[in-house]
Amino acid sequence: MARIEQKLPVSIVSRGNEVFIQGASDEDVGGAAKVLQSLYDQLRRGGMVGKEEVDAALRMVSVEKTESEPLNEDRWQIRTDRKAVAPRSPNQAAYVRAMEQFELVLGVGPAGTGKTYLAVAMAVWFLKQRKVERLILSRPAVEAGERLGFLPGDLKEKVDPYLRPLYDALADMLPEGKLQTRIEQGQIEIAPLAYMRGRTLSNAFVILDEAQNTTPMQMKMFLTRLGENSRMVVTGDPTQTDLPPGQPSGLIDAIPRLEGIKGIGLVRFERGDIVRHPLVAEIIDAYDGRPV
Fold it and tell me: Which residues form the PhoH-like protein domain (predicted)?
């Protein structure tokens, strides 16, 4: 309750099973009541409620008055084998809606906004519901560059560290045994972007992560892999490219080309959508806005 009082101009008093909310306006009191109701609903469903959940409820309620429907309804939860994943900001909710509605979605914004995590959760849900036959998760291994040859091991062992965030997200959604089985059966494929060339990706949910590290030609190659009955999600942060100096980013190039095309969704995340650690937002501000 103290966290809610910090964020909203209200006073909350608990007496037994009753909660009393006082505020300067009915809007503030109503907002606090919606936050408390949302948190109570999470507990009732068996979920955990901590600081992150309180902050998420506050973010959602802050814009709910401008939406035609509540943003924290059960219908926006993505239910995977291990957990239910729910949007924690208005833009995350828009992202979930876009992935449900559009065949191609671009999620663009700073680190920690849940772009990859929500995309992986949605992909697992599509596979669980048998809306697709396989998941394909990809990243450009740009960070390796010429250094790749100096790493120990075969090609898979050299590339896997760059794909590890995708494995980690999948491990949050699927039990270890089931994840490994699906990978061995070919239902889940995690591969570098170069492996996508020449393929037609049909009946699949396809994710390209860290897309800011593609070149325009690589991006065009990837986007044109989209096949029948497939979903494609492209995520990235245009401010964090690892491309050589002077090399344009395929993600930055693609946004103005694709924006407005029917069947393509574009969701721009902002600093307020950062749901990782509170310090992440401060770190981003430190690098983006303060001279050294």
Answer: 85-288
